[in-house]
Write a structure and sequence with these properties.
Blueprint: H1 6-16, E1 20-21, E2 48-50, E3 56-60, H2 69-81, E4 89-92, H3 101-105, H4 112-139, E5 147-149, E6 152-155, E7 160-163, H5 199-204, E8 219-225, E9 232-237, H6 239-242, E10 247-253, E11 256-259, E12 270-273, E13 276-281, H7 284-292, E14 295-299, H8 308-318, E15 324-329, E16 340-348, E17 360-366, E18 369-374, H9 379-390, E19 397-401, H10 415-427, E20 431-434, H11 437-442, E21 450-458, E22 464-473, E23 492-499, H12 512-531, H13 536-544, H14 557-579, E24 589-596, E25 598-609, E26 612-623, H15 630-649, E27 655-656, E28 659-660, E29 678-683, H16 701-713, E30 719-720
Parallel strand pairs: 3-4, 8-20, 16-30, 18-19, 22-23, 26-29
Antiparallel strand pairs: 1-2, 2-3, 5-6, 6-7, 8-13, 9-14, 10-13, 11-12, 15-23, 16-21, 17-18, 17-20, 21-22, 24-25, 25-26, 27-28
Helix pairs in contact: 2-4, 9-10, 12-16, 13-14
Length: 725
Amino acid sequence: MTKLNRRQFISIATQRSGILAASLWLPDLMLNGNPARAEGAPIQSLYVNIHPDNRVVFNLPKQEMGQGISTGYAMIFADELGADLEHMEIINADYSRSFSLAMQGITGGSSSTSIGWQPLRKAAAELRIRLLAAAGRYWKESPDGYTTRGSRVIDPVKNRSITFGELISFVLPEEKINVVLRPASEFQYIGKPLPNVRIGAIVSGRHQYGMDVALPGMLYASIERCPVFLGKATSIDDSAARKVPGVVDVFPLEGFRRDAASENMSPSYLYTVQDGVAVIATNSWAAIQGRKVLKINWDYGKHGAASDQRINALLSSSEAKDGRKILDAGVLRERQPGDRRIDTSYDITFQAHALMETLNTVCDVKADSCEVWSGHQFAKRIVEQLSPILSLSADRINVHVLPSGGGSGRRWEADFVVEAALISRHAGKPVKCFWTREDEIRHDYYHACERHLDEVTLDSAGDVVAWHGKRLTFNNVFLEDTWNPYMDSVPSRSLSLVELESPVQVGPWRSVNPHRNTFSRECAVDRIAAALGQDPLDFRIAWLKKDLIVPSNEKNPSEWLKKASGDRQALVRVLERARELWPGKGKGAGVAITTMHSTCAHIAHVEIMNGRPLLKRVDVIVYCGTAVNPSIVKGQFEGSIVWALQAVLYGGVHLKDGRVVQSNFNDYKMVRINEVPEIEVHIIESNDPPRGTGEPGVPPLAPAMANAIYSLTGKQPAAIPFDWA
């Protein structure tokens, strides 16, 4: 019996049977210009296909990286349509420009659920209404009173039903309808803690990741990259590598930097394909063994002497620089008698992603086409970058978006896909380019190192009257983040940016800038509360209830007030819920808050054991609008806390002679199960539209833990990872 892959199966199935497809009748979602079709002919789909045997196949437009978007999106669509979720098949959509940029272009920024909420419901509701009308034609009466459930149209008055599949030929795509969404009272799935729909395939090994892809005649490639960022090869001796059994070729890869700008995306920044030598073989083992015997001389370039000591020295010498003002609000206040100034300094070191599934991509480049299989968060970027590099039009590049074992911003970048494409073009065959664990830790797109300096002035009455901050950063993306809800009621406030050249590539890391900003901001607030002798949680609530002061240079004051007041209301809401769980000042608990789509507060409970702080428990209070699946929301925050705790305990890559020192889990440690605290996630009930939960749980962990230590010892950790000396 011939085995068919998913793409072949769908192609044959749509040729041989009628298929009803959702969302084709909305103009901005149509794949074909003319929605009309011959009776019984197949209809292509964006979101869902309904087959005559009543199989409902959902086309997932986002990339699944373990965050559970497969389940969340399927629940939303199934609820609005009235489909049987338990028997709904979920497939990964290939990249298509027919999807909007929001719906498929990017999986990241904790935005998928909030972005997809309305488009998915509207597409499903339209199909539901068309199916109801089709049932009316089938039964030859008005469909008033009909409903859908379990992938059937139900007539409750006459106690009869018919499957969606049986109604395919009765649906009129050109029929004008009025789309009405279901009321929340009719939801069958949304709001329930249902199991992950893909968990069975994951635990049984049927869930296909990029590492699982195997094509006929496929070769394997492993790259020896320059150990120093932007270094170049000066000579290569590959004679021994070519003698390794299984090695078929050795290909020097000339490094380059390109603008990562994407259509409708800003800001742009440079991404890097490192100089290296690719060993191409018939199997991965041979590629690795061939790589080990390469003899390469490198010119390490300007970063060849980079080290931890030099980075710290550069940060210290840059503190006196004025920097570039990215926030300047209010009038500069001269110091008055009775004023007190609190100066704080916090460091965040470079952090690696250390994803469970290392990077990999399969590319098959031909003279007139390119096919890509990759667990990637931003397929649109793949097409946009490969098109000029391969001299192919965008429509000749086909990207199969696969699930991945983690993403967290690293799979947002194009470098590892570009490498695979260049090697495939050279080899003339499909190639799987794979990274080892050492490659990933030593050639990552690191969370940028920063030092945050703040000067906070209290007047004689104890009010914060000035807050002036400065960020010394090796970052080069999303630099303009100035969010600080406390500053919004400070009369004199500013934020400056001193940009430093990074000795390593930097890029998005789960929670991006809020991870750094929240650490310094929330630790500074505890210092201010301590100076005033106030409870840190009550102090935050009181501060966030103060009157807002619109920046003097704000171009749209009404919009600024709307956003700032909305942020503060959500923050106060979670803090007032947190107060119910708060043990009180000086009892080993610390609090921190942030808003990153969802709004959350962490209460970290710490004990001192054998002279070292131990995180015993974390209470998470989150406002995320409608929790589509509370189980997945809780899982997101539990995973976020483990991610953040790794950075606190073991994170931070070290540089020596321009190279990253660590290489694997023996020296870039992960959090072990016995180190994970008890985690309780408290979701504030709401009927508001859902908000993202993939990242907001990361930023508050470190400052909440630092503040808990501060409450016990009077000493506050001032860097991530924490210094336990």
